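PROTEIN DATA CARD
Card holder: MAGE domain-containing protein
Chain length: 242
Origin: Anopheles arabiensis
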Amino acid sequence: MPRPSQSQSQRSSTADRPNATQEVDEAHLITCMVKTILNLSINKSIIKRSDISHIALKGDSRLYTRLMPEVLFELESVYGYQLVDVESKGQKAMILCSTFETSSLDELSESYRRRYTFLFLILGYIFMKNGAVPEALLWDFLHSVGIEEQQEHECFGDPRKQFELFIKQAYLTRTKQSVEGMPEESVFLSWGVRAKHEVSKKAVLDAICKLMNRKPTDFKTQYIETQAETSESVEDDMDESE
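Structure generated from the sequence above:
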């Protein structure tokens, strides 16, 4: 078989170069997407797909679809985060959730400990009320433990401001529901997507039982939920090991 001429070899070499360059560019774009997602979620804010595409890819949505699997892999394997879809005013959006277990409150800094104590208080009340409560009823409960909606708290700061932040961060979900016998829809609160991924129901129930000097099995419905949560976690670990 005749050897290719020098000009043919040069053309072949030149034709191969764009592919190598494309691979380098894609690796760079993946890094840009990961950094963009981490930066956008620094305050646990909701992330819009359009923002990722605009900042990291200059608006090229085709690249977004092609590169996202590698981005998801790097976020989880390197940083321990998982992107979770959420609804945000009709737009495609996500939040970045930690794949690690929630730290003990004792391991947090003072400011974070106060913030998450308030969050656990709210999530715990909702959990013990079977998953959804009227917002007005929640504030009645907080009032009963010395937390006023419109007054600065010595430990938790501005309760209303912190409460609204929990909603923006997807720890809480606010929805309107029709209630029998009520002329208008009522506003209900439930655990948000972030809380479902990052907060252990077992940890919440254990904390409540410790405060009340009760056993987890005293609360049958909640105890069953915590056992189901534990089973799902074990199954996920087995799937990953396979």
